[in-house]
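Example record for the data management plan.
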Amino acid sequence: MSKIFKIIKREYLSRVKKKSFIILTILIPILMAGLMMTPLLLSRYKSGSTSIAVLDKSGLFKNKLDNTDNLFFNYFDGTLEELKQTYKSKYKGILYIPVINIKSPQGIKLYSENQFGMLHSIYIENQLEKIIEDNRLKEEGLDREYLAKFRVNLNLDTVILSKEGEKSSDSKLSAGLSYVMGFMLYIMLLSYGTMIMKGVIEEKKNRIIEVIISSVKPFQLMLGKILGIGAVALTQIIIWLILGTMISTSIMLIFLPEMLDAQSAQVTQIASANVNVDNSQIYEIIDSLKAMNIPLVLSSFIFYFLFGYLIYSALFAAIGSISDDASDNQSIAMPVILPIIISLFIMINVLEQPHSPLAFWSSLIPLFSPIVMTARLPFGVPGWQLALSMFLLAVGFVFSVWMAGKIYRVGILLHGKKVTFKELKKWVFYK
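Corresponding structural encoding:
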């Protein structure tokens, strides 16, 4: 046991002390913070104003186009040719509106020396469409505000009927949480598994492994490497959580006044429009989170991450021991990588049908269950299914470590030979 601990310590310290580990561990939360801050910073930035000369021959749009903070409309009389000669001194473009038939408007053009941005073009189109619609409604004797009274905004309440009684649920919230947790497991299993495989290949290629094997058993070396890199992964995740919480809190404190001002302005606008504010959705989300049993979801997520990592890391370690040529190992590793990729596709189906036969059976198979069952958890899983899945995952862990140990024991000292699947079978069942 002391030898395994020494290997764990060596694997852990050798990776944690690397500059790449330190830089990556610190850089990722900063990059995530940058992604969070970019929209807020861009909202502060105001580009130069754009003025457009409007030549309205129809008379339908006179003084009806709404200006924005950086887009202004100025109305002119005269001819289009005159404006084309003089507009560049003050304006970025010309909006020409001929006499049109509002039932089939044609011929409206936006002239400019340079191409307009997408947002400005869409805004102008929306303004023109709104004014044309208002004129059509007016011809029919209808009013936009009167029609708005008949619009319905319906929120469908979903309720789960269980033995404990009725529970509120939110499929969108469950799907969002399922996707985040499932995708996180997909990334971590693939990245840390391949890290173990590359580490074994590197040691085997440099012949360091022969020196290490002289003092420890191959199985001890494999187990120590798996647990050591697992400790590295756990350390990195904990640091990311701490830094992410600190950075998110700092961002909230910096931008909180602006967010409160925006919320205050929105409340004022709603009040002036005599619209009743409905807070029921907030309470529904809170009830849905309570019904979801968040402690069970998070604890199960940790369980499936740990055992999923142990299964796949053992298999990747066995693959890394087969050959010291990285290209050969990549091709042999495909049977191990494919279940992870397939699990991701099954997870996408689970978001739509979390209780289908495909979701049920794949959440019991140890190679699929870490991602699939994690994705099913927010939708609610019967206790017996969760217990059976965890039991089978633990059995799969024992079997995969046993099988990987058999392959690792022989392959780690093998050099200069391509190994076939038939030979791997002999290594596994050799007594």
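Summary line stored alongside the record: The beta strands are 50-56, 71-76, 93-97, 109-112, 158-162, 165-169.
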